[in-house]
Amino acid sequence: MKYYYCRSLLCVALFVVVVHSQSSDHVDGELLIDHPVSDLTDLFAFVSPHQSNRLVVVLNSYPFVPRNGHFSEVLMYSIRIRPASIAGIREHPKFKIHDPEYRFNCTFNLSDDVKESTVECKTPSHKRIVALLENKKNSEKGIQIFAGQRQDPFLFNSQWFGQVVFENCIPPAAAKNDLANLNVLSLVLEFDIYSELKGLKQSYIAIAGELSRKTEDWEKRKILDRVGRPEISNASLAASNTNEDLRFHYNQKDTFNLDDEAISLYSGRIKENIHYYDAIDGVIDWNDESRQSLAELLVQDFLVLDYRKPFSTGSYFSIERAMLRGQINTRGGGRVPGERVINTLASLFINGGYGSAIVDGIPAKNIRHSHFPYLEKPGRGPWPYLKQRLAPRVVKALSLRRRVAGETCK
Fold first, then answer.
1. Is residue 307 part of a domain?
2. pLDDT under 50 in the chain at which residues?
3. What is the pLDDT of residue 390?
């Protein structure tokens, strides 16, 4: 989540990239600014475009990773999947989460020679898969694994987003993706749904990513970061200069085991922010009750996927939107790399998802790489190098920006 702006050719030459606001789950808290290897940035989940019985999950971390950046041996990267069902619609949308939990826990063994470094993943079916890093052809026991650097697939116009979140306006759309050519560490798994998620009865699954300290005792793990839907921590939990930044504590909570106090705290902040965004266009679309219901739905911070529906792009939040409207869901949900999720979120908050879409101007990519690992090769060369070197130097102060009462677009 960062801030990029350039006001002159000299600025371009010297600074290249300044992150103007936070994006998705990138740098969502002060601790993660100082320890970017512990920062989960995005989660994607979708049915394979080629085989409807296979699920693809992408867990990205380490924003602005430099060329020599790598995964950590002391961390455990987890993909958590739970059966889900719809427990309420319209004014009371809610998911019910069921047992069992299906979990992929991945750790890394690093070598001075990257070609000898490996990732080891333990699967829900008790398989142990070991694969080389940066290898797209890793395939063992029906599971494909990729772990390495890829271009950040999140689409983000930082100036546009910053003005919406902090300056109470909808700026003109501009096709400017500030994360282009910046890289992340990607962990990509593709597996047979019925082999790994055995006994699954519900058609919906809830998926969350988690980063914790490496341990053999799951119940005693120390959670460092988590990710579900995009823009929950940075947009939905945005803080003003008069209230507490909740992101640090939010990131360390167990996604599927929030207590009532935490639910009340986080839904309260989200409700405040929905009210703020809703008023930007001068028309109130969410009343107090509906704001509360939407906030409680968003606190259930995971991607929801109907794995029995075929692959499709542009279906992020389609299941939740159908619930809010009391309609039958016809899309698969989940999230595909290259979707314009900022537009989806802005339209939802500002006009309830009705009328003209609120757009930042960036065109969707629609998975230009339609085969495993579904992500573009890392950005290389002088331009990406300068961007990646500079971004961490300027992000610390800018990513902690607070909303100030009365601040508006200039």
1. yes
2. 1-21
3. 80
Rounded distance, CA 379 to CA 156, Å? Answer: 16
**Sign of the torsion angle spanned by Cα atoms 31, 251, 71, 41:** negative
Question: In the structure encoding, which two tokens stand for residue 365, read together?
Answer: 């990519």
Indicate left, alpha or beta for 142 from its phi (over 0: left) and psi (-120 to 50: alpha).
left
Alpha-carbon gap, residue 93 to 88, rounded angstroms: 4
- Count Cβ neighbours within 10 Å for each residue of 263-278 and write b for 16 or more, e otherwise: eebbbebbbbbbebbb
CA distance linking residue 93 with residue 331, whole number of Å: 17
The region, left, alpha or beta by phi > 0 then psi within -120 to 50, assigned to residue 355 is left
> Radius of gyration of the chain from Cα atoms?
20
Report if residue 15 sits inside a domain.
no
- Separation of alpha carbons 390 and 182, rounded Å: 11
The predicted structure's pLDDT at residue 27: 52
Tell whether 342 is covered by a domain. Answer: yes
Amino acid at 3: Y
Residues 273 and 246: their CA atoms lie apart, in Å, by 13
Task: Return the amino acid letter for 151.
Answer: Q
DSSP for 354-378?
A: -SSPP--SPPP---SS-STT-SPPP
In the chain, the number of structural domains is 1
Separation of alpha carbons 254 and 262, rounded Å: 11
For the entire predicted model, the pTM comes to 0.91
Query: Alpha-carbon distance 355 to 402, whole Å?
Result: 30
Q: What is the pLDDT of residue 243?
A: 86
- The range of the structural domain enclosing residue 55 comes to 39-380
Q: Is residue 19 part of a domain?
A: no
**Tokens at 287, concatenated:** 């009343």
The amino acid at 381: G
